[in-house]
What we know:
Elements: E1 2-3, E2 46-51, E3 62-67, E4 72-76, E5 94-99, E6 106-110, E7 113-116, E8 121-127, E9 138-145, E10 151-156, E11 160-165, E12 173-178, E13 194-199, E14 208-213, E15 216-221, E16 226-230, E17 244-249, E18 255-261, E19 264-269, E20 272-277, E21 297-298, E22 305-310, E23 314-315, E24 321-322, E25 326-330, E26 335-339, E27 354-359, E28 367-372, E29 376-381, E30 386-391, E31 405-411
Antiparallel strand pairs: 1-31, 2-3, 3-4, 4-5, 6-7, 7-8, 8-9, 10-11, 11-12, 12-13, 14-15, 15-16, 16-17, 18-19, 19-20, 20-21, 22-25, 23-24, 25-26, 26-27, 28-29, 29-30, 30-31
Amino acid sequence: MVVGDDAAAPQEASAGDAGVDAESPRDAAWVDVTALPVSCASQPCATSLVTTFGADGDPGEGFCALLSDGTVACWGANRGGQLGRGEDAATIPSSNAERVVGLSNIVKLDHTCAIDKDGAVWCWGTGPFLRDDVGAVTTERAPVKLNLPAATAVGVGKAAACAGTGGSGGGGEVLCWGSNGDGQLGPPSRDEDLGAPRPMPLPSGAPVRSITVGRATLVLREDGTMVTWGANPPIGRVSPFFPDPNPQSAALKGVFMLDLADDNACATAGGTGYCWGAPVVPLERGNGSITERGIPMPVVTPEPIVQMATTHGYMRDDGIWQRYRWCASSVSGVVYCLGPNDSGQAGDGTQIYAYKAVQVEGLKEQAADVKTTPNTTCALLTSGKIYCWGSNSTGQLGNGQVKGRSLVPVEVVLP
């Protein structure tokens, strides 16, 4: 069902942290999970999916996909040049998924940064891309190659970024640069903006699997342990420091994957989802404490989950606080969503706030992964197709249409 423009009805949930339950019925049941594989049924075929960042005032409602031929296609918002259409292209949103110019042989994506088969890191859009003033945020309408050693992982935030180097066999390091306003680049001072990338003093441990950067930096190692630093509570561990710029291990073990959106994080471990971060309601608007969600707490889902994606809370133009939400893909390939649903982004065919995880209706096949923006959700299916639902205010459904919204999944037209 596709309906009109996104004139969303104000919605606010109860004061509780909806969908989080320390006594989840599956707390004690550890399930070994693996990601459902993508097997390209036809071309074009996507093999991974990410969200994009916008510039100031841009909601960043957009997505990029890594295609099986090693290229990248993006669609949606574009005020920050995040579609990568080229230096002469207008920074206007697009509902048509098109290839980012100049990229080939790409093997990994994180937002609008990519790693190619040789380990080179390429970035486009708006972010800390090591350009004129090394640690500054710039806008690049076409991909630029960052002056870094060969990387195996990259994590980029709106003002800070990190890369893991040295290969999967260990012996490498994590290099970080950009703004250190929340201590997300480590010691010595949270007020110091770093220039050239410098190594972070991580405790010894397994090689780095992935890096995510927001107001904190979260490093996931191959053995499922996490090392975190930066803003507290997004670091997801008990600390007396606010922020805590010192890389330390978090208590959550056996982590399969994690996602960080500014100051809100989610992870999966043993088939259970965990979320933590900023208070449900800003302190100036509620009665909570800054640490009410300071450590990972399990969420309730109907079955074990594999992948998870989340968003951060923000103030809408109408003065309503839009809370964070999350979606997850399960071991059976079903997608579940919780939270705001005024644009149909929870995918259950309604616009009713999802206080409990609801099943997404209308997906044609099993989902291998899922990604969320505040108002839209997209799922990568095991066939390599991508389906999206929710708002289409910046063309983020990727189906060639503009405006409106869809309460059911629609297929992205990949190039």
